[in-house]
Amino acid sequence: MKESTFINWLGRIASIIAILMYVSYVAQIYNNLHGNYCAPLQPFVAGVNCTLWSIYAFFKEDRDWPVFWANFPGIFFSFATFLTCFPW
């Protein structure tokens, strides 16, 4: 397997795993909405991290799509989790 083929597949697999990691926040959002609140710091920091990586990947001269798509969903899921951590 050529290195570029390996790197392309590795980027795709890593992107899918990262997306699944952020989609897993749905269970915590559900718990938060039902009164079982989590600590807000981790999802907030994850949201900031995803935002920064998405901006980096999108605006660099040669866009890094695997990094962008791996982090973009995390912006929404992380901040949704953060916002539901509080009994408004």
Question: Can you give me a brief rundown of this structure?
Answer:
By secondary structure, the chain is mostly helical. Helices cover 77% and strands 0% of the residues.
Number of strands: 0
Uncertain ranges: none
Gross geometry: elongated
Provide the residue-averaged pLDDT.
94
Computed CA radius of gyration, to the nearest angstrom:
15 Å
Helix content: over 70%
What is the H/E string?
A: HHHH
Strand percentage lies at under 5%
Distance between the termini: 53 Å
User: How would a textbook summarize the main sheet?
Assistant: none
Task: Count helical runs.
Answer: 4
**Class from helix and strand fractions:** mainly alpha
Q: If you had to describe this structure to a student in words, what would you say it looks like?
A:
- There is one protein chain.
- By secondary structure, this protein is mainly α.
- The protein has a domain of 61 residues.
- Helices cover 77% and strands 0% of the residues.
- The chain is built from 4 helices and no strands.
- Helix 2 packs parallel to helix 4 and helix 3 packs antiparallel against helix 4.
- The longest helix is centred in the N-terminal third of the chain and has 21 residues.
- The radius of gyration is 15 Å and the shape is elongated.
- It starts with a helix and ends in a 5-residue tail after the last helix.
- The mean pLDDT is 94.
- One of its GO terms (cellular component) is membrane.
- It comes from Limosilactobacillus fastidiosus.
- Pfam families: MtN3_slv (PF03083).
- This is Integral membrane protein.
- Keywords: Membrane, Transmembrane, Transmembrane helix.
